[in-house]
Amino acid sequence: MLETLLEPFAYDFFVKAVVVATLAGALCGLVGVYVILRGMSYIGHGLSHAIFGGFAASSVIGVSYVLGAGIWGFASALAINRVSRSHRIGADAAIGVITTASFALGVALLTVFGNRGPSFDAALFGSILGISSTDVWTLVAVSVLTVGVVATRYRALLFATFDPEVADVSGVRVARTDALLMLVLSLAILSTLSVIGVTLVAATLVIPAVVARMLTHRFATMLWLSTAIGAVCGLVGMNLSYHLDVPSGTTIVLTGAGLFVVVLTLTGVGRLGRTQTRSGTPAVL
Amino acid sequence: MSPSEARVTHPEVAPVHVLAPATELVRAERAGVSYGDTPVLAGVDLTLRAGDFVGVVGPSGAGKTTLLRLLLGTQRPTTGTVRRAPGVRVGYVPQLETVSWNFPVTVGECVLMARSGRLLPWPSRAERADVAAVLERLGIGHLVDRHIRELSGGQQQRMFLARALLREPQMLLLDEPTSGIDVATRHDMLHLLGHLHDDGMTIVLTTHDLNGVAAHVPDLVALHGTVVRRGAPLDVMTPEVLEQTFGAPMDVLQHLGMPVVLDRHAPGRPHGA
Description:
The structure holds two protein chains of two kinds. Chain A is mainly alpha-helical. Chain A has helices at 2-6, 12-37, 41-61, 65-85, 91-113, 118-125, 133-152, 154-162, 164-169, 174-196, 201-215, 219-244, 248-267. Chain A has a single domain (2-275), classed as ABC transporter involved in vitamin B12 uptake, BtuC (Orthogonal Bundle). Chain A is built from 13 helices and no strands. Chain B is α/β, with parallel strands linked by helices. Chain B has two domains: 1-89 and 169-236, 3-Layer(aba) Sandwich (Rossmann fold); 100-167, no CATH class. Chain B has helices at residues 3-6, 64-72, 107-112, 125-137, 153-165, 183-198, 210-216, 233-236, 239-246; strands at 24-35, 38-49, 53-57, 79-84, 90-93, 171-174, 202-207, 219-223, 227-231, 250-255, 258-263. In chain B, strand 6, helix 6 (183-198) and strand 7 (202-207) form a beta-alpha-beta unit. Chain A binds chain B through residues 37, 150-152, 154-156, 158-159, 161-163, 165-172, 213, 216-220, 222, 273-278, and chain B through 72-74, 90-92, 94, 98-100, 102-106, 109-110, 112-122, 147, 149, 167.
């Protein structure tokens, strides 16, 4: 039994994959706290699809996907922001148009110019095999940056998330803080894309944070708890992926979903009400 | 800008949170706000000076919150001008209804938000002492680790007041600080604001509680899309002004030199009680 569990650790690629999945899970868990408390689950979902367009375009042109998809993703985030501010179109509709169009463009590009096969599936659902050293270093750099931002802007981020208007008159630069969070969110999605996949990134943002919310009413506790839950999901999910031969994004998300059901059963359904956001709509997708 | 206003721009010269009395803090001239095609405020002329203690009364939809936002600067006038003295530290207590009560923060975490400049996530020893002191002063020191939802309405008001006070504001704005709490707590709150005003703080609050403000606040603004009247309670709480403001006939009695407003359709039942 133990031998079977330890067997894949003999392979370098698997050790790399486990490290990346654990770190990716932790990173998404950390950023996800802000995503669910701001009622932005849908933005996470949309942004990952938008980034797929950039991913496809950069693979067709032959430039680094980190660069291509990164610029594309941040541009999408800014476009969403801009379109949603013109009050005629709501934010949700703006996200719907921009991100699905970007996703469709990505699919069209890859269909016309080829490059389907493993990388296409990997981009959608995540892959153990597709992890390069660039992926690892990108993820490490983004994680360091994210922790740095969350630590040094801790109260400004909290205040701007809890009550942007009062934060604004209390000396917090809300617009700048929000832009910083969008940047960190875009980078987190981009850097975890290869392990978790476009279609499932949103779940890794949402699930650990929701589970953490059910376990605490303290913000500081929720932050580290969500990070830890994300890491555990990444670690366990990646191992399951190897043994079950299922895409890693799938097993990471299913691990989280399993944990969610267990915690929900133990704490009672009533606690789910806690995850409701400012607008009163449930944050769960 | 007058010479006295120049002091406002250099708070390090002025005492901690006391501005020279009568220093002009905000001046609205013919200010109006429309949301789309719907006008909320029009032709508002209002000057706020250091040391003022102003209560804004008016019916729902009269534009009370919008007026506060104009004074705060979070709402720009769509017509006219609002000039605000630069560098004034402002504390704001929001309406309880607008707060997301499911948000995972404890009372201590919420109050600490006021010190947003710190580059470390955890509070310093001095900050922890400051939070304890301000909560103690407001009588909710024992609730520091509670979730914000577990507090009563009056305690929630005090928590947000504590957060505002932690900034050592020169100007304090409160949106409906007396709603959602019982009569005794309401008077405690108004007393507390009176003490802060005595210490030199400039205070503006909105309220539905006509008799409460008439008894505790020296300077009233009757608002209904524009400033109907501003002055002492006895000048503002008149049947004419109140009917113009609320659109309903009201009687005003005097009790111990203070106006008491009665709803004419329900004799003997004080309005807003």
